[in-house]
Amino acid sequence: xxxxxxxxxxxxxxxxxxxxxxxxxxxxxxxxxxxxxxxxxxxxxxxxxxxxxxxxxxxxxxxxxxxxxxxxxxxxxxxxxxxxxxxxxxxxxxxxxxxxxxxxxxxxxxxxxxxxxxxxxxxxxxxxxxxxxxxxxxxxxxxxxxxxxxxxxxxxxxxxxxxxxxxxxxxxxxxxxxxxxxxxxxxxxxxxxxxxxxxxxxxxxxxxxxxxxxxxxxxxxxxxxxxxxxxxxxxxxxxxx
Length: 241
Fold this sequence. Notes:
By secondary structure, the chain is an alpha+beta fold. 29% of the residues lie in helices and 34% in strands. The longest helix is centred in the middle third of the chain and has 21 residues, at 75-95.
């Protein structure tokens, strides 16, 4: 949803549009460092309001040679961010100086972009996760739609920040193998599938190492829906909810 503001620049009125509410959104991204690099998981759903309208949206993308980006939130704003990054990487490559932007530089750039748009009262409605590997060093950070950013060994957006982070705090360690890292991410995504109405059982897991980025083909998790609490989820509930 957008609204139009007439702006008087002294010569004529120009229209300026602002996003009031995101239309098509993606839910949680979960990412962790492991011993060889970074792993990132996301499902492929796109919700039109509360309707799961799209089921084939890729929300994890390679950025240049050393970075991997995942996004929650408005899909069209994510596409706009990818256009910004395409221009950034192209400009970097044109220097042809033997150097290339690493994940820390891309993360700082995204922080500035998000904070700049927030200050214009026209934010990009996304929470971004940026991971990468350069010169043998793994990097993982996050930036919110208002430009708040941080680095950590594991991050999650959306419902994942509430439901997946406790699992990661208990079970993550720096020497995780690729196989154990994938199992940990799948455990988090399974919990989100059970508890987040916007999640779908179709996900991708991406990894980035010194060798580059690999994104898995979409696949589904094995689930179990016969837990007693699922049969009558409102039993014992208090109040009008």
